[in-house]
Amino acid sequence: MQAAAFAGPRRALLRNQDGNHEALKLFTQVPARPPWYKEGWCLFRSEDAAEGARVAAFDFDKTLHHGGMAWRLSSAHIPGRLRQLHEEGYRIVIFSNQHGPGRQRTREAMQAEVRDITARFDDFASFCRVPLQIFVAAARGDVGDAFRKPNIGMWELLCSSRCSRGTLPDPALSFYVGNSAGRKTDGNDVDRQFAQRLGLKFYTEAFLTSRGA
Ligand SMILES: [Mg+2]
């Protein structure tokens, strides 16, 4: 009985890992167009390697926007807030987990998925008109990829020479804002955990509506 009880979840995990492996193979075959690049299961956009110890970092979905056709309205106050932080000397960085690529099973579907994701973030960047460094973890959530929050691979990539020069980001001088904080209505607490693992001060999305929270 006991063996059977364990075999089910284990088989499911192996199946997921196989699926993820296949999807990753497709992901590596699909080109990312500049200003986007790929590193493992991470898509990132960092036009120039930026300098500076202070980082204002944000989750994307349900933190910087609320999706749907009216996302610009739900984010109307965001560009000003980000611009203000930029003027105060912060680098503005987005760390986002996305689920789409891990589900794709053909090269065409993967290509379309990567194109859609990068276009969505590009659209947001031009809406904000402020320099942004954007990191997107694209692996499935059930395989513990190093880039996927709460793992810290995206922060490490930010600190690499591909994305940073001169003064490196300093967690003690930086903060992170996300909506997955382990509250009753949150699906999980990956944003809070991500901040904790890095020693970043953590705020929920209320940071963006209450000035100076
Ligand atoms: Mg979110």
TrEMBL record:
Pfam family, one: PNK3P
The organism's place on the tree of life at top rank: Eukaryota
GO molecular function terms attached to this record: ATP-dependent polydeoxyribonucleotide 5'-hydroxyl-kinase activity; double-stranded DNA binding; polynucleotide 3'-phosphatase activity
Biological-process GO terms, alphabetical: DNA repair
PANTHER family: BIFUNCTIONAL POLYNUCLEOTIDE PHOSPHATASE/KINASE, BIFUNCTIONAL POLYNUCLEOTIDE PHOSPHATASE_KINASE
Name of the molecule in the record: ZDP protein
Organism in which the protein naturally occurs: Symbiodinium natans
Lineage: Eukaryota, Sar, Alveolata, Dinophyceae, Suessiales
